């Protein structure tokens, strides 16, 4: 078991709860656990530890939304996502913890910018035609593959893509659930191949998994009651603090 101070365990526990909530109630909210894990653990270790907990959350998202996926969208994204995953794996394999840690900070800030830009676009008149081109799908797919491999932070990228495609809410949630469930499972052998799933990581995740389950169940129950705008502002604010901390 990793030797962490009580406050560090408290941060990880909060992150585990947030993972469950993000998977079942707060699309895009998963960026907060990325910042919290990377602030407490070595960067490469945080990526591996977080991945296993995300997979647990994915299972609950699939149970809730599995029937609403739009498979043509997933197939359109697949080639670029694979290319992004390979590029991200190469970066993880050659980068040391300091480089990866700062890269996660930069990625988080970029993802926040993406989220804010998406909301600004959404607030404008929706008279524009939704983009359907291969170039658009390839750009989003490659960026999602890279960011999810390096930092488990593809949520805002995919949210922006689905909204740009004018995806209905249920289809949005179902397609996202399948996308992350598949991609996260694909990432496991990559990270295992560079030795990131060691005994301490597995033991730590075993302790945190019940909190992910609790968060997911709470998310399913509270999804229709939660004031997402207020929660999103809290998530963005805390994530900015976490990203700046990682950079400096």
From TrEMBL:
Main location, first listed in the record: membrane
Superkingdom assignment: Bacteria
Similarity comment text for this entry: Belongs to the 4-toluene sulfonate uptake permease (TSUP) (TC 2.A.102) family.
Key words, A-Z: Cell membrane, Membrane, Transmembrane, Transmembrane helix, Transport
Transmembrane segments: 46-65, 77-94, 100-117, 171-196, 202-223, 230-247
Cross-referenced InterPro entries: TM_pro_TauE-like, TSUP
Cell location: Cell membrane
Protein name: Probable membrane transporter protein
Topology within the bilayer: Multi-pass membrane protein
N-terminal signal peptide: none
